[in-house]
């Protein structure tokens, strides 16, 4: 079991401590897609859980060049104000590329005080994650004070992993305490935000193009439309 396998197991365990989490059966062609020339070993997962529309995870391993990747996106039901939780980690021989964020439907002071500032305080307990700005233009609207995004020396992996799990622990505590929104205006804002985020993942994420080169365009599109989002 690799460090990223252990991380995925730990994340699922943490979520399961707060809500009842249930695996969703996927089309085998999407759950474990076969690649051209067998260069890719990929596994995709969906779960159902109370207060969530979908929990998604991917494990992605490439033989040459050697790459090991995890991607997790947790979508609350759009009747809750909770952000969409995202964690991405790619390990190469010498580097780690990480993206850790809560994608927020609101940006007012009260919302930031509950969902962003506590994570920023967690982040400040670690040495700075300093890196050249690698943020794609379409992602910049989701950036918050607690966001991590960049390429680092691989010795920062442990810090990135621990920080992600601390974020998730706090996030799940708040999910557990969350009540459904009743205000029609805020509900409309939440739903529009979720749709925009999903559309961005489906149409702007360059990973879909990269994966399509290994498993085919149609199958990659289905993964992004049916599994990832």
Largest sheet: number of strands, sense, barrel closure: 7 strands, antiparallel
SSE succession: HEHEEEEEHHEHHHH
* Fraction of residues in β-strands: 15-25%
Q: What is the distance, rounded to the nearest whole angstrom, between the alpha carbons of the first and last residues?
A: 27 Å
What's the overall average pLDDT, rounded?
94
Classify the helix fraction into a percent range.
40-55%
Q: DSSP helix count?
A: 8
Number of strands: 7
Spatial sequence of strands, sheet with the most strands: 1-2-3-4-5-6-7
Net shape? globular
Structural class: alpha+beta
Low-confidence stretches: none
User: Rg, please?
Assistant: 17 Å
Features:
229 residues; seven-stranded antiparallel sheet
Concise account of the structure shown:
Helix content is 42%, strand content 25%.
Tell me what the structure shows.
The chain is an alpha+beta fold and 229 residues long. Helices cover 42% and strands 25% of the residues. The chain is built from eight helices and seven strands; from the N terminus they run αβαβββββααβαααα. A seven-stranded antiparallel β-sheet has the order 1-2-3-4-5-6-7, sandwiched between helices. A hairpin with a 2-residue loop joins strand 2 (40-49) and strand 3 (52-62). Helix 4 runs antiparallel to helix 5 (157-177). The chain is globular and about 50 Å long. The relative contact order is 0.16. The mean pLDDT is 94.
């Amino acid at each position: 079991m690799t460090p990223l396998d252990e991380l995925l197991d730990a994340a699922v365990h943490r979520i399961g401590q707060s809500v009842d989490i249930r695996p969703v059966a996927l089309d085998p062609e999407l759950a474990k897609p076969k690649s051209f020339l067998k260069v890719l070993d990929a596994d995709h997962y969906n779960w159902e859980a109370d207060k969530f529309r979908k929990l998604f995870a991917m494990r992605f391993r490439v033989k040459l060049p050697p790459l090991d990747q995890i991607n997790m996106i947790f979508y609350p039901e759009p009747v809750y104000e909770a952000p969409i939780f995202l964690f991405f980690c790619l390990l190469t021989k010498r580097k780690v590329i990480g993206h850790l964020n809560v994608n927020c439907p609101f940006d007012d002071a009260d919302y930031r005080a509950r969902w962003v500032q506590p994570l920023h305080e967690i982040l400040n307990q670690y040495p700075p994650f300093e890196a050249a700005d690698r943020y794609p233009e379409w992602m910049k609207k989701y950036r918050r004070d607690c966001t991590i995004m960049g390429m680092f020396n691989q010795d920062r992996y442990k810090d990135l992993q621990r920080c992600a799990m601390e974020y998730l622990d706090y996030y799940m505590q708040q999910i557990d305490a969350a009540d459904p929104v009743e205000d029609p205006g805020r509900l409309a804002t939440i739903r529009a935000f979720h749709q925009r985020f999903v559309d961005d993942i489906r149409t702007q994420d360059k990973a879909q193009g990269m994966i399509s080169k290994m498993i085919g365009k149609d199958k990659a599109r289905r993964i992004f439309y049916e599994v990832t989002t």
